[in-house]
Amino acid sequence: MSRLAWLIAALALAGCDGAPAPAPTWRTALADDGGPLLAAWGDRADDLWLVGGGPGDDDARVVRWTGVATPVAIGRSERLWWVWGARDGTRWLVGAAGLVLRGDDAGFAVVPSATAATLYGVWGSGPDDVWIVGGIANGAADPEDDLVLHWDGAALTRRAVPARGAALFKVWGSAAADVWLSGEQGTLWHWDGAGFAAHHQPTAASILTVAGCDRDEAYAVGGSHVWQWDGATWTEATGLPSLAFVAGVACGPDDVLVVGAQGLRLRRPRGGGAWIDERDAATPMDLHGAWAGGDGGLMAVGGDYLVAPGAVRRGVAAVRGP
């Protein structure tokens, strides 16, 4: 190759390397009549577990998302509310009527929970430290409220939390000694490895989801509220776009995602800045669960979970990526 031809080729390659990457956009990944989707979990945007279904007229719904939606039959009728997985490949699914499923790619087995209450959330710091929360979500005190279960690698046992008479909806932590629980009537508990401390918010709204990025950055959402934890204090966000009912939040390396009713999707880049309203006409359904992956991908899942059982129960999943 002549020197001139080599120089032309090098310049062409340099131009390719310098081309800007396409900007990430939202697209509908799944929209069908198979039942609502309530939660998504996984490490990458091309390998996720989605759960949902019910109540009353649908089987429990489990979908494996690899860029293509593949139904997973588990032979249960209870609505599944949440999913989480440990690094060893063990996955946990929790839902109505005290249902706890534990398993892997080969299948799932029921773990006795000794409760008939709905289990709404599950999270763990590892395969031998798994927290599950739930209760009776009716705004009144019930014997099965303040429900906290803990897996130590052998069995689920009840953990005592100071009585508040509130159903608990979600649990998330950055480590075994940094765990947050959220629930009805502004309930927020923090576990430091030795006991629970109250961080309840002055609202009658339920805090439906708590999730975070690390010990000094967590988010809690519910009603029309978004709160942020900075390592010392919870502060309610202000100046947000007009909010519908807020249901879910997730935090990834690049963005924080908030989702809710009527297709609500708010995104804020990590490190601050304004919340960006990314609602669109293509995803008008009610969204419940948010997912943010280590690869920068985002997913919002939902469907007809806020309406009474009917002949058609739609489910939807939207993804954000290049």
Question: Count the helices. How many?
Answer: 1
Query: What is the helix content?
Result: under 10%
CATH topology value? Methylamine Dehydrogenase, Chain H
- Beta-strand proportion: over 45%
How many β-strands, per DSSP?
28
Q: Unreliable stretches, pLDDT < 50, 5 or more residues? A: 4-16
* Measured distance between first and last alpha carbons: 37 Å
CATH architecture: 7 Propeller
Mean pLDDT: 91
* Approximate shape: globular
- Helix/strand order: HEEEEEEEEEEEEEEEEEEEEEEEEEEEE
Q: What would you report as the Rg, rounded to the nearest angstrom? A: 21 Å
Task: Give me the CATH superfamily.
Answer: YVTN repeat-like/Quinoprotein amine dehydrogenase
CATH class: Mainly Beta
Estimated structural class: mainly beta
* Largest sheet entry: 4 strands, antiparallel
- Give the strand order, joined by hyphens, for the main sheet: 1-28-27-26
- Total domains: 1
